[in-house]
Amino acid sequence: MVDITHKISTLRVASAQAIVKVSKQETIDALENNTVPKGNVFEIAKAAGLLAVKNTFNVIPDCHPLPVEFTGVSYTIDGLSVKIEMTVKTIYKTGVEVEAMHGASVIALTMYDMLKPIDKQVEIGTIKLLEKSGGKSSYRKKHRSQLTASVIVCSDSISEGKKEDKAGKAIIKKLEESDVSIANYDIIPDEIEVIREKAVKYASENNLVIFTGGTGLSYRDVTPEALIPILERRIPGVEEAIRDYGQERMPYAMLSRSVAGTIGDALVLALPGSTNGAKESMDAVFPYLLHVFKILKGGNHDS
Predict the structure, then answer these.
(1) Residues 71/83, Cβ–Cβ less than 8 Å
(2) What is the SS3 assignment for 260?
(3) Rounded distance, CA 222 to CA 83, Å?
(4) E-strand stretches of the chain
(5) pLDDT in tens, 42-69
């Protein structure tokens, strides 16, 4: 199976369609009047579709078991065709497109099985995905102007050349995946005044200023102390999201003092200095966090 442990759970919705075509009006009449010998076709096929949705992972090898939190089935008769629409919802890390298509397919097959004694020419037509929402693509909105970012690594040992930076490079990779261009990449020691100077300078030039390192509890971890006094507005929800995501994967995440806030129209983040901590922090909030720039420009939360 594809690894989805780095993803966050969001509301996922998918709708799929299948079409059953019959050869004569008498078959449609039997469907509408509930006179098909094998029973109520619409209800039995619906039940089969619901079971199919719940058991998709048992049939399609790469599908993940997931909580199915809603299924809806509707039928539309159009001439000699019956259009089946299946909608599936979940709050999970992966989408339900295959579940919706599987459900619609099984409904169509069940209808075929029940109708074949009275109509030997029943066909199953197009099976397709109608729409989906809730995945990363739903939140990866393009911005009118290119967003730019500065990434600053706060580490005595890295600035002295004793260690190689990996956390900063992981942050840069995630930013580039989110269509954010990198304007600056600096490595500095854990010094309060140096951190503040970089934050103020780069916040005036870029949309994002991201620090990595110095958020722990050692006596040299001073990034939060440097940034908090100069932040104009803290964003507690971002800090909570980062820690909550990390805590589900590593119990030590509760010891991190990640910070999020604004200086002017720039978003400033202070993330852990470990490679995994930095990667997980970025996975927790990107690309969703980029919505903040629409808000800062006067947009609303629905735009």
Answers:
(1) no
(2) strand
(3) 62
(4) 10-21, 70-78, 81-92, 123-133, 147-154, 180-188, 208-212, 233-234, 259-263, 266-271
(5) 999 999 999 999 999 999 999 999 999 9
Q: What is the pLDDT of residues 245-283, one digit of tens each?
A: 999 999 999 999 999 999 999 999 999 999 999 999 999
- Enumerate residues 6+ apart whose C-beta is below 8 A from 29: 35
> For this structure, is 156 an active site residue?
no
| Structural tokens at position 280 | 């997980």
Helix (H, G, I), strand (E, B) or coil at 60: coil
Closest CA to 187 of 162, 168, 202: 168
Q: Which of 82, 90, 72 is closest to 111 using CA atoms?
A: 82
Tokens of 161: 């050349």
Residue type, 231: L
Q: With residue 57 as reference, give the H or E element that holds it.
A: helix 56-59
- Give the pLDDT confidence score for residue 294 in this predicted structure: 83
The Cα 208–Cα 198 span in angstroms is 12
pLDDT digits (tens, 9 = 90+) for 145-178: 689 999 999 999 999 999 999 999 999 999 999 9
Predicted structure pTM score: 0.77
Euclidean distance between CA atoms 157 and 139, whole angstroms: 37
* Of residues 77, 58, 54, the one with CA closest to residue 67: 54
Residue at token pair 């870029």? 206
The DSSP H or E segment spanning 169 is helix 167-177
Q: Any idea which residue has 């079971």 for tokens?
A: 51
Catalytic residue among 29, 62, 78, 113: 113
Closest CA to 290 of 177, 206, 178: 178
Q: Cis before residue 236, ω within 30 degrees of 0? A: no
